[in-house]
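Continued from yesterday's entry.
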Amino acid sequence: MSNILVLTCPAGKQYSHLLPLLAEFRLRLAALSAASVEKLEATYPFAEVVQADVTDPKTCQQLLKGATAVYHVGPSFHPREKEMGLNMVDAAAVETQRPGSVFQHLVFSSVLNTQHRQLMQHDLKSYIEERLMISPLSWTILEPTTSWTYTQSRCWQAQMSLPWRDVGLQKSRTALLL
């Protein structure tokens, strides 16, 4: 039996580039809505797609049954994002204790600097990170950021070099981007 990787919120932006790369793996995609299920089944016929209410702890436990790992991406700005994340951490901890469990790892997609409590999405994710850190799980916290490619930095430099030439910021700004 091959390993099962569970992915939450698979219809979101993070997964649009990742899912095609994971086609060779056994995937269980946990969609939040019927519309997402329909879209995902059409786009990724190789995956098991389920509609899952991850605000329900029992549903999270069922979702992880028999899974080796979960990559949890919470729906940003959802009023119950914190609850969903905590449920996934708790369900993973329960799954590790189940006889015959093969669960090994939880990956959580967070944000940079969760200590900024005035930013709602940072504040909510900080509680999930804390729960992970005190859990018995093997885990990874990812902090996706906007990244610049070399081409983007050169385009930005070309656009910014003329207006800022006389201010003396061009060199320091360029050094930061290259």
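--- second protein ---
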Amino acid sequence: MTMLPPRARRRLAVHGGGGGPGRPSAAWWALLGLVMSGWLLTSGCSQVQPLIAAFDTTARPTAPPLIDLKVDAPDALKPLLEKHLDLARLGLLRSDETPSAGEINRLIAAAPAQARELLQTEGYFDAQVTVQRSPLPSIEAGARAAAAPGDSAASPAPAAPASVADDDPALRRDRLQVVRVTVVPGDPTQVGALQIRTEGELQARVERGDVDAIALQHGLAAVSTLQPGMVFRNPDWSASKQALQARVRAAGYAAVRIQDSRAAVDATARTAQLRVLLDSGPLFLTGPLQISGLQHHDEQTVRNLAGFEAGEPLTETRLLDFQDRLQAARLFQAATVTIEPDPQTAAETAGTTPVRVRLVELPLQQATVGVGVTSNSGARATAEHTHRRPFDWPVIAYNKLEYGQRIQKFSSDIQTHPGPRFFRNLLGLQIEHDQSATDTVLSQQLRLGRTQDTPRSERLQFVELLRSRREALTPLASDAAQSADSGPSTATALSINAHQVWRDLDSVLLPTRGWVLSVQGGVGESTSHGGATGPFTRLYTRMTGYLPLGGQWYSQARLEVGSVLHRGEVEVPDSLGFRAGGEDSVRGYGYRELAPTDASGATISGDVLLTTSLELARPIMASMPSVWGAVFIDAGRAAKRWTSFTPALGYGVGVRWRSPIGPLRVDLAYGDEVKRFRLHFSVGITF
């Protein structure tokens, strides 16, 4: 290896230390730098590599294997032995760490016992393990041959420790031996019985007849991963104990611990008797809220979102629901709800524990703009503004303007901050202009009501004044049609409405399991300009389900039903009726074109609606899990009445991608009724 020049070495030895007397001056270091630079320039970069390698431990090569380990075992057990046997780790050693032949012999001799210990973790307590090794191309014999070449009868010289750390690859190949570990696992040990006992506050409440405590204790057995008749595995046993603790902790016993646990294994009978003793500790109760992080909003708003009073059991569900409501309140950027379960402190305060709420508020005002394009509405641009406390009032003012090729909309909402039982009062205004291929609809809505939002449900109750004006774009077919339908139709309705949404999803953003149910109902009176006045009822429901099918396949199904009930001569506002077709409805058809038509051929809203959809999707490639391919079939339409309802069919394939610029969905669908393909897509960007 090329070394530094002698003078440079001496200088490094003298001046390589830290500070204090004798510290080299700046000029001294500059001179050393010049010497080093000159040496590097004259010697070339090739001289530097050995120096770097000398200090780079990661550059040291891994030693070639000394043994070839073969494991003969059932497929379920083979990876366990190949990964955890000490023999399998020899190949991970560096070339300067290769063990001696004696150490290798020790590892081979210990392999059966080690394998049996590993198999016991999987429930095999009577496994038969044998180890066979190929005849070693004796290192000692090689040493004897080197000491007396050509003399097979010569006495062997004392062999040096046969370190197999020679650098000659050929010599290593000669010394490679096969070690075969053969496993006959036998029958696995099964759980014979599972006994779960409790002590502490939980047991005391059970003995006093507390209904909640009794239900908790009786439900513990079902929580365990291991059940009688199942194979006893150490990982499952550990997971079962953790699950039992988590279940008791979630019920408010935050200091629960395992007082004792035993697994009595009878290797002959191949059974395991499991026993767990849980010390629940005290039942923690809700104490005062300790709120931090508020700058503009009231503490009372936070207390209204708690959903519990002081002295109630501090269950995990209560804390998580409180945190979810805070995060969904549109007031806070971050919210955490925690407790510090101290049994001693709880004993001094009659079991109550302070609940700590840490908040980070969202900005008082926030504005966003966005652009997007969909096959339904074409290109669009949006602008939104939110003020979370205008004029220092505890309300949220939200305004949104959307301008698109087919839809132009302005909406303005004012909602109070959450009050008792999570209710908010609201006042809303919306103006929308919607254009289809054959008509335009201009509607104005004014709402007054209240809403109640939780992570799993939404409730909206309101009184609405709605005015809708519809005008046909299609040229009229005849004078008769013109006399009947030429002018715009305008209707006004005053109604009382109730909307409810329930959801149970594994993820709100990307659901793969669960369901969402939306139900709407309203009653009111409609007045058409130049027509009759009368009552009406509007009903609508939509249910969507998600279910994983295995093999990375996921299913999604949707059912949508609606109906408007009124006398024949009464005309309700067009925007209260139904239309189908397009993205998120029946693909393969134009936006809102699956609806009845008037005498002029222009599309109008129907009084009944039925659509359904079934979709199967999966990731296209494992390396790109965010890109999914899908196949689907849709059916349905809107009609004047159920007797004239005939569903239109559409089916096709699509791609879904949660891209960095926003969600992207592209579908190519074939409309069976129109006998042609149609492309559906949507993408949006928010700034």
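The mean pLDDT is 83. The longest helix spans residues 101-120. Will compare against the first tomorrow.
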